[in-house]
């Protein structure tokens, strides 16, 4: 809901603030005062293309700002946050205040601000499509596309159709996915066969080698040992001879330690301080003897290495290196590749079975979709007849007694995400004429009334936050104008309604009355906007009725009209 609209230097409006709020706002004023600038301001605020001619003569730029209440957790607030803006904490309950502004320079530059942050003009359009619908002689229809008309009819049809449509859409997505999978399997069959052959060859090659995790590192160590076997033997023999000589040709470490221990044992009883040294030498003798044993054992293993073992190790390493080069780079990658390739090969080998299963499933889903689509068509035709009758009745009360509104539901050749129906809203403007699309079957003024009739009927099922009507009362008067005003008041029970009007019969139903008035002082005509109440509103109503705001008979007639409108609005 738009709380307030501020306008500066737009057309003939120098500076104006329009308090709007909930309910029905009527905007009136003398011819040329700039009433349509209010609609133009709303259009610019919600992303319409800027016209430099709309900038007030002599001004550098036109500027419009709107303060709008939106659900803090709704999609509009989410979009504002996506572009870096935020809501002000001015609203009540779940609502927050969104501030939008738009400036248009005299040179044609345009700038938009959303929630305090600069944003593309396209963002204003996105927000406007969710918040405001403008119906005027030159404005596009909210329901101009067939998809929008189908959506409006579906909303009008109610819960039963919504339930069936939900089931249909869920099944349609599954049917589409399975159909796409079949198409991919068939289209890619040759490529999948090649992939299967490559995987099978790779698995056979890896299986033939049968690599083991960590084997490459172990073989590298073994190759290093076998390559340097003679050096290892000589070093081991020399070390053992030095530790514990078996030849007896020279001293060894074990013999020297034992000799030292025996020398100290002979005199240790003279000084207790030597006792721990003797014990340490005894332990050292034991440790060195153990080292000698280990060297002997290691040397024995060197003597048992088989002839040709190095060749076999190098051959095995070459096999593993070849696998790593193809499927690696590491041996662990080769093993992982083989583990992943086997289920993929199984999947590829089962393509024929999968296609057969999917084909049967797709056929079953298509049959069920067709059945639900028939149900949707029946529900739409029934709802279309009800909507046609209700809107036609409204048109009769809006000075279009010979017009007939038609909802056409025609079958498509194929299934779509919403069924098999093409929905189109048509208008037969008078007896004997053929129903035509809405924007081709009515004049500008008639089209506004047609859209008013449709919106009144759809209001409960397909609500819109704000409606703006420009020239909805063109070409009517008297009782018909009263009916237009009454229906706008009905629409205002569920939505904010802003109407630019020149008829007192329409303005009488407003809960908020604004007048655009000219100021002829100075070289350039300027207009501003004032909110009317009490005697000021009564005088404006008299002016609209008779052109004489001070006429006693006009004032009396205006008072009577306001009372009548109040009675009809609450009935």
Automatic annotation (TrEMBL):
May be involved in recombinational repair of damaged DNA. Gene3D superfamilies: P-loop containing nucleotide triphosphate hydrolases (3.40.50.300). Keywords: ATP-binding, DNA damage, DNA repair, Nucleotide-binding. Residues 2-518 form the RecF/RecN/SMC N-terminal domain. It holds the Pfam family SMC_N. This is DNA repair protein RecN. It comes from Herbiconiux daphne. Belongs to the RecN family. PANTHER family: DNA REPAIR PROTEIN RECN (PTHR11059:SF0). It comes from the Bacteria.
